[in-house]
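Input/output pair, single chain:
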Amino acid sequence: MARARCAHRRGKDASAEQRAIGEINAGVLAARTERFAQWLLRLTSNNAQGEYYLTDVLSLAVSDGVPVVAVSASDPMEVQGVNDRVQLAAVERTLQRQAAQALLRDGVTLADPARIDVRGTLQCGKDVAIDINCIFEGTVTLGDAVSIGAHCLLNNVSIGAGSVVAAFSHLEDAEIGGRCRIGPYSRIRPASVLGDEVHIGNFVEVKATTIGARSKANHLAYIGDASVGRDVNVGAGTITCNYDGANKHRTIIEDDVHIGSDTQLIAPVTVRKGATIGAGATISREVPAGELTISQNKQVTVPGWKRPVKARR
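Output:
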């Protein structure tokens, strides 16, 4: 430890032999608190610089018969100092490179190991593939043969085997079943649980909702505070109107329901098993099982109507 102690000193205090040492003290010390307190009181500035050297506690420890052990860093970046944001970014890239290398060694396919950020814990099964610029936060678990498209953010998510998350999707505090298809541009918000073979397509948002196996919402929909059964098809433009300005209410959609495009489901409301809702409907009362329900105004054509024309300047 004499080497580590002296290598940290300025040239005026080090002998020629000590200056020839190639080891560098990283400045990390560990000992019992009461021992440190005793040694700090015994430090002196009796040196060429007139300074107090913290590393002098090592010689004090030896003189007190306390064992001193040196630990060498396997990678210099483990003890790299961070004094500004440039150095912080360099250390972060090193950490991310190590995480990427560990994933590659475990059999994960990374489209570009330099473009992945693991900011928590990422556990992967066999044959997982991750495209560029994906961010993993919290605890994320990917089952066998899961594929994550480019530019996705996953935060505290578990995804079952064989599922695909397409590009630009954001999943948070959610559980995704096996063989699902998510995205592109999908958002799965907290407290959402998707069963197996569920499809959530482009620009669809799901929040605090359970969705049964094989159900689909493929385009431009919002499903919030809902319980959706199996084999349900949600048409484009459908929304659950779950908020009345003060409280959230739930929508219940039972199995084998077909909801036409541009439907508003005003919660609290229940759609019974096997029901069909026509496009453009506004539903505020219970929909009976196995029936077609519509709420459409009669189409009217106004004779002689003329479209307004801008006045020429």
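The helical segments are 2-7, 16-19, 33-41, 57-63, 85-105. Residues 227 and 240 are 11 Å apart (CA to CA).
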